[in-house]
């Protein structure tokens, strides 16, 4: 288990212990509530159920460029097997602009500076996991959607957390 050493100016060095999230739900909640991590994306909804889509996207958002963002979270190291799952969500988002627009309109306090062309928007895929295997990148390079691969790990010291 990796440790992170945090040296504070006025205090001794703290040894932060690697602190994996207890569940994917906890991981997802931490990302959803820490807006600074995905600062260019207005996160609309978690665990979107219903409709004619296969599965449940973890998070749906809209980025500053008006792209619909599908955020898929994994609480374990992930590999290329996640790609078919996120592609199914991306296809659904592309084919159902009315559903995405309704989510946007139902969201509290939409940013005024984000403009979405509901007749023609792009879908962006974001995969977040503590580790992403190189095979994922190889497959990502063969698809036509923009994809961000983000590794996030957590360390802790008592009630304090450090996300990297």
Topology:
Elements: E1 3-7, E2 13-18, H1 24-33, E3 41-46, E4 59-63, E5 68-73, H2 82-95, H3 97-106, E6 123-129, H4 134-140, E7 147-151, E8 154-157, E9 160-163
Parallel strand pairs: 5-6, 6-7
Antiparallel strand pairs: 1-2, 2-8, 3-4, 4-5, 8-9
Descriptive report:
- The protein has four helices and nine strands, in the order ββαβββααβαβββ.
- A hairpin with a 4-residue loop joins strand 4 and strand 5.
- It has 164 residues and is α+β, with helices and mostly antiparallel strands.
- The mean pLDDT is 89.
- The longest helix has 14 residues, at 82-95.
- The strands form two sheets. Strands 3-4-5-6-7 form a five-stranded mixed beta sheet.
Low-confidence stretches: none
> Which structural category do the helix and sheet elements fall into?
alpha+beta
Question: What strand line-up does the widest sheet have?
Answer: 3-4-5-6-7
DSSP E strands, number: 9
User: What is the CA-CA span between the terminal residues?
Assistant: 15 Å
Report Rg: 17 Å
Strand content: 25-35%
Biggest pleated sheet: 5 strands, mixed
Order of helices and strands: EEHEEEHHEHEEE
What percent of the residues sit in helical stretches (DSSP H or I)?
Answer: 25-40%
Query: Helical element count?
Result: 4
Mean pLDDT: 89
Name the shape in a single word.
Answer: globular
